[in-house]
Amino acid sequence: MILASGITKRFGRTEAVSEVSFQLGAGGSLALWGSNGAGKTTLIRCLLGVIRCRGRASIGGVDVRRHGRHARALVGYVPQELAFHDDARLGAAMMFFARLRGLPAGRAAESLDAVGLSGHERKRVRDLSGGMKQRLALAVALLSDPPLIILDEPTSNLDAAGRGEVVETLLRLRSAGKTLLFASHRPDEVVSLADRVLVMERGRLFRDTTPGELWPTTKPVQLVRLYLTMASEADAAEALREAGHAVHLNGHGLCVAVARDRKAEPIATLARRRIEVRDIEVLEDVQIPEAAR
C-alpha cells in the first residue's frame, strides 16, 4: 500500500527527515514513534505529497510526486489539529464535505455510522466531547471509503475515555481491512493498533520493530520522565534506545516507557554511561491490553 524510498526533507540547514525507507502492505498497521521534532509529521506530509521532498513515495502503486491527487484519493487523513466550525451541526458538516468531494448524500450517513456517530447528527460541534470530535474527523476522512487511513497523533489531546473511543473505532476499521499509518506517543495505543513500529529520532529511522519487542511485558507500563542537563539528553536517549527502551524527548525532560517493575533500569543504564539524572517523575500507568499481545 505504501512504498517509501530515501525520503529526505530539508528546511534550510535543518534536515527534518533523512533517508527514510519502508514498506507497508495492504491491511497492515504501522506506528511512527519518536520525540517531538523527530520528523513524524514531516514524513507524513511527504508521503501525502503536500510538501516537496527527495526520494520516492507511492501509495497503492501511484507515484505521489507525479500523480499526487490520484494518490491522495486513496487516503483518508486525520491531522493532529482539527478545524471545524463550532456552530456547525454534525449532519450538516458531513453533507458539506460530501458535496465538496462530489459524493452522494448517503455517504455522509454511512461514514458517521462507521465511527459510531449515527444519531448525533443534530448536535453542534461545540457540544461534542474530544473523542467525538476526533471521530467526526475520522468520519470525514472515511467519506470516500479510502483503503488507507493516515493519522497524526489521533489521541494526543484526549482524556482516557476519548482515547478509548478513538482506539475502538480504529480497531473496527482495521478489522474491516483498512490499512493504518499513525504517529503516536502512547504505548497502549501502539500495542493495540500496530503490527510494526518505526522509531524515529532527529529525522532518521532508528529502528524498525514491533510493539512486543519495545514493551515485552504483561505488566502495566509506566511513563517515567527523567530530568537531565540539556547537554546530556541526546546522549541519554541514544544510550537508552541501545538498551532496548522506548524513549522520546518532549522539551521537558526525557520520557521512557517501562514496565512498572523496571523503573530503575533506565537510571542504571545511564549511570553506567556516567550520565547524571537530576530528578525523576512517574507520570502515569499505561495498561498494555492483553488482547493486543
Q: Gap between N and C termini, in Å?
A: 25 Å
User: What are the segments in which pLDDT stays under 50 over at least 5 consecutive residues?
Assistant: none
The CATH architecture term of the largest domain is: 3-Layer(aba) Sandwich
CATH topology of the largest domain: Rossmann fold
Taken together, the total number of domains comes to: 2
> What is the global morphology?
globular
Number of helical regions: 10
Percent helix, as a range, is: 25-40%
Derived structural class: alpha/beta
The overall strand count is 14
Strand content: 25-35%
Major sheet description: 6 strands, mixed
The chain-level mean pLDDT equals 86
Order of helices and strands: EEEHEEHEHHHEHEHEEHEHEEHE
For the largest sheet, list the strands in their spatial order: 6-7-8-3-9-10
Describe the structure concisely for a colleague.
The protein contains ten helices and 14 strands. It is α/β, with parallel strands linked by helices and 293 residues long.
Structure write-up:
The chain is α/β, with parallel strands linked by helices and 293 residues long. The protein folds into two domains: 2-208, P-loop containing nucleotide triphosphate hydrolases (Rossmann fold), CATH 3.40.50; 220-287, Alpha-Beta Plaits, CATH 3.30.70. The chain has helices at 40-48, 68-72, 90-100, 106-114, 130-141, 160-175, 187-193, 211-214, 230-242, 264-272, and strands at residues 2-11, 14-24, 29-34, 54-59, 62-63, 75-78, 148-152, 179-183, 196-201, 204-209, 221-227, 246-249, 254-259, 279-286. The strands form three sheets. It has a six-stranded mixed β-sheet, sandwiched between helices. A four-stranded antiparallel β-sheet has the order 2-1-4-5. A four-stranded antiparallel β-sheet has the order 12-13-11-14, with helices on one face. β9 (196-201) and β10 (204-209) form a beta hairpin. α4 packs across α5. The two termini are 25 Å apart.
